[in-house]
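Bug report

Summary: structure tokens for GNAT superfamily acetyltransferase differ between web form and batch submission.
Environment: batch mode, default settings.
Steps: 1) Submit the sequence below via batch. 2) Compare with the web form result.

Sequence submitted:
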Amino acid sequence: MTNLAMNTERPVAAETCDEAVAAARAAAAASGVEVREITEIAEMTAVGVLFETIWRSAPGARPVNTELLRALSSAGNYVAGAFADGEMLGACVGFFGTPGKGSLHSHIAGVSKAGAGRGIGYALKLHQRGWALAQDVSAIKWTFDPLVRRNAYFNLGKLGALPVRYLRDFYGPMTDAINGSGDTDRLLVSWELASPSVRTAAFGEPIRTDAKALLDQGAAVALEVAADGGPAAGSADGPVVLVAVPPDIEGLRTADPSRADAWRSALRESLGGLMAAGGRVTGFDRAGFYVISKEEQ
């Protein structure tokens, strides 16, 4: 189940908010969790511990702390958790951007190992969507590592968000077991909460992208996985371009850091370069390809 505090004066169409709340409740029920806002200090401390466990942060480098969460919540921002039998299995934190409350930046979200594979991350994001629409927020933005295949599919395929900018070394050095020691390039995505594709995705119909069909139609391949697991540059000459990412960049960072660094550089040049030149990322195939359109709209 899910618990959403609704604004009684809703500029956003009431049916859109009601639909979003219904989708959030269905996702939470399917995951066997209760998703709700967090306001108590003890639970805010638990969020910090949860994220520290997920990211395996260095001592003193917890991703968020209790004081920050308290300040964000008290200022009207988004702090929520997913619970089952009294145990916190996931959490999500966001804050308002400019202008005013026109947009929400979703800063961090994570699910514990105990909650993995149940769709809890999806339930958290749908709760955040319902909450934001109730505040008359039309879009949520966040960043993610474009090399992480499962996150790319989740954000673009499961949720229907679309990348708007490639950000080079966005956070600077991060001392945790997930990001490694290299640059922290990120994709900034925008989740247009009331768009037809997002509304469809919210009721469990992913945004489907077929890289093989696009290849058969003549799409170019600017980057692919070589036989040795490293990046292999190709051609970006065409209106539709595919850019690959490795199957498991996190494992590669541990097993072969130099090859992982090579992937960072190659993706920055190919995907980052295409976006800087005006290319639009239109989807992500679960097989590991971003799809970029260079056609003018």
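Above is the batch result. After comparison, the two runs are identical; trailing whitespace caused the diff. The chain has two domains: 14-202, 211-293. Residues 39 and 271 are 40 Å apart (CA to CA).
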